[in-house]
């Protein structure tokens, strides 16, 4: 095998590992409305964060190939708790409440925001936060506030651009480059930026592979 073929073979292996990881069992564990209700820490944990209605629950369903594992809605703020899922006994996946605008009372939004920050600061087995950003709009100030908190807490995060089916190829390339520039000086940002769509599954295999790589690095794959 030539040196040029080695990275391709590694990528193919990770794609297959990711496919197998998410092709297995995926089970709901618990919902936590507050920190005392969080389930015990176990193994490697990843979390999906993002603005309300950015497509977190839809992407969780696309990853696992299950349409109803995570509840989806066109109404911002439908996910109101931290929802924990066991992925094949190897990984815990957390679907977080959306931050920012939500069609509910302001006090409830503030409670969700506090829950998110408390969870991110105190979860020792949290390996990475996948920050979902709507590719049509890019990073907003409310997103960068969350990134500031992750940098401060030294929690690794990776940006995933959602709803990529809504953009032209040139628009996607421009959005990725602009996002890369914004993240270049952030210490906790993982350098690879993914573009996904829950509608046509673009980027979903690559996201699975990214999770598989993370588990392999942690000796959990």
Q: Which descriptors apply to this entry?
A:
single chain, alpha/beta, Rossmann fold, 7-stranded mixed beta sheet, 6 helices, globular, cell division, GTP-bd_ribosome_bio_YsxC, magnesium
Structural summary, described in words:
The structure is a single chain. The chain is α/β, with parallel strands linked by helices. The chain has a single domain, classed as Rossmann fold (3-Layer(aba) Sandwich), CATH 3.40.50. It contains six helices and seven strands; from the N terminus they run H-E-E-H-E-E-H-E-H-E-H-E-H. It has a seven-stranded mixed beta sheet, sandwiched between helices. The longest helix is centred in the N-terminal third of the chain and has 19 residues, at 5-23.
Short description:
The chain has 221 residues and is of the alpha/beta class.
Radius of gyration: 17 Å
Helices and strands, in order, run as HEEHEEHEHEHEH
Helix content: 25-40%
Class from secondary-structure proportions: alpha/beta
State the fourth-level CATH superfamily. Answer: P-loop containing nucleotide triphosphate hydrolases
Number of domains: 1
Reported by name, the CATH topology is: Rossmann fold
Mean pLDDT equals 86
CATH class: Alpha Beta
Low-confidence stretches: 72-78
Second-tier CATH architecture: 3-Layer(aba) Sandwich
């Amino acid at each position: 095998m030539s040196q040029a073929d080695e990275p391709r073979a590694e990528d193919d292996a990770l794609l297959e590992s990711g496919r197998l990881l998410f092709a297995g069992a995926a089970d709901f564990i618990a919902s936590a409305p507050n920190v005392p209700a969080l389930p015990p820490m176990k193994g490697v944990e990843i979390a999906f964060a993002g603005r309300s209605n950015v497509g977190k629950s839809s992407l969780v369903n696309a990853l696992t190939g299950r349409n109803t594992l995570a509840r989806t809605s066109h109404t911002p703020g439908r996910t109101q708790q931290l929802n924990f899922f066991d992925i094949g006994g190897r990984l815990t996946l957390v679907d977080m409440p959306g931050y920012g605008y939500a069609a509910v009372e302001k006090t409830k939004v503030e409670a969700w925001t506090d829950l998110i920050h408390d969870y991110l600061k105190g979860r020792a087995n949290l390996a990475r936060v996948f920050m979902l950003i709507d590719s049509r709009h890019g990073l907003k100030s409310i997103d960068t506030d969350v990134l500031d908190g992750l940098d401060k807490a030294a929690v690794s995060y990776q940006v995933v651009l959602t709803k990529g089916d809504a953009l032209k190829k040139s628009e996607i390339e421009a959005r990725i480059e602009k996002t890369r520039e914004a993240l270049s000086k952030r210490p906790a940002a993982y350098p690879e930026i993914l573009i996904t769509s829950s509608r046509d599954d673009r980027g979903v295999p690559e996201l699975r592979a990214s999770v598989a790589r993370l588990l392999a690095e942690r000796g959990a794959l």
